Amino acid sequence: QVQLVESGGGLVQPGGSLRLSCVASGYMFRGNAMGWYRQSPGSQRELVAQITSSGGTTTYRDSVKGRFTISRDNAKSTVYLQMNNLKPEDTAVYYCKPPGWSSDYWGQGTQVTVSS
């Protein structure tokens, strides 16, 4: 079965950093693009960043450009999201999922809280 396991979240002060990890299993990881998404209370889940299967191309939503970096290690079936200069508005549960998949495949996510 497909498993997407996110980790690395936590409580951090504004301006701090976190590195999220997503370990995938149950499908051919290297053949699919991967995205990081987030959802805060009262908001729809939104795409934060995505990376092609080879890792050669990345895209980001405007609000995180210059602060977040998505990367992947296909040998480890893992994608990462390095988050720097975190802001309170980054507070959310973060999820990983191939962008082309349906919403039925969300994992449990990892909570990121940015607060003084």
Description:
With 116 residues, the chain is mainly beta. Helices cover 0% and strands 47% of the residues. It is built from no helices and 10 strands. Strands 2-10-9-4-5-6 form a 6-stranded mixed sheet, with no helix packed on it. A 4-stranded antiparallel sheet has the order 1-3-8-7, with no helix packed on it. It is globular. The mean pLDDT is 96.
In short:
Helices cover 0% and strands 47% of the residues.
Q: Which structural class should the secondary elements be placed in?
A: mainly beta
DSSP strand content: over 45%
Structural shape: globular
Number of strands: 10
Characterize the largest beta sheet: strand count, sense, and whether it forms a barrel: 6 strands, mixed
Question: How much helicity do the residues have?
Answer: under 10%
Chain-averaged pLDDT = 96
Helices and strands, with pairings:
Elements: E1 3-7, E2 10-12, E3 18-25, E4 34-39, E5 46-51, E6 58-60, E7 68-73, E8 78-83, E9 92-97, E10 110-114
Parallel strand pairs: 2-10
Antiparallel strand pairs: 1-3, 3-8, 4-5, 4-9, 5-6, 7-8, 9-10
Keywords:
mainly beta; six-stranded mixed β-sheet; four-stranded antiparallel β-sheet; 10 strands; globular
